[in-house]
Amino acid sequence: MNERVGDAESAGTIDLTARDVFAEWARATIRYADLDPNNHVNNGAINQFFEDGRVQFRTARMAPLGEATLAGFALVRYSATYRAALHYPGEVEIGTVVTRLGGSSYDLGQGVFQGDKCIATAEVTTVHIVDGRSARLPDTVRAILEAARSAGQG
After folding, report:
1. How many Cβ atoms sit within 10 Å of the Cβ of residue 8?
2. Which of 64, 86, 88, 135 gets the highest tally of CB atoms within 10 A of its CB?
3. CA 31 to CA 33: how far, in whole Å?
4. Would you say 147 and 99 are in contact if contact means Cβ atoms under 8 Å apart?
5. Nearest to 73 by CA among 124, 19, 127, 25
């Protein structure tokens, strides 16, 4: 595994500020409406970029499993660190990688980049839900998540 050490993320030893750790990528355009009164892209817009990255991850990696499988997940923890100002106009790239697999949950690490510059990182925990309760990750989902973990780390 090519785990990068450096940034003290709770994702463990993965440096979410390094572009080469991510398994899946999405692109987003910065809109004028994303600006705050200081002419920086607002943190709410950056959070939306992270969501765009998670949607791309799920679409690219898990859509073949069907909508019923995709509906069985809930985001239970989200933590973002804003590292640099982002300005309009432009585009960003959002990287996503699986950083941990549990029995009923998994963690994603994400980074928003403009060129080589890391603008923000996020850590997300998602739980598999069946009938309103956490449930073991199905083997098909686990295999897809494990592949996304390997792809980003080695």
Report:
1. 8
2. 86
3. 5
4. no
5. 127
**120 forms bridges with which residues in the sheet?**
82, 112
Burial bucket for residue 39 (CB in 10 Å: 0-12, 13-18, 19+):
exposed
What architecture does CATH give domain 19-153?
Roll (3.10)
Domain boundaries, the chain: 19-153
Percent of the chain topping pLDDT 90: 75
Nearest to 111 by CA among 75, 86, 136: 86
Tokens at 146, concatenated: 């494990």
Round to the nearest angstrom and report the end-to-end CA distance of the chain: 4
CA distance 127 to 107: 9
Whole-number Å distance between alpha carbons of 93 and 34: 16
What does pTM read for this prediction?
Answer: 0.87
Distance CA 80, CA 82 (A): 6
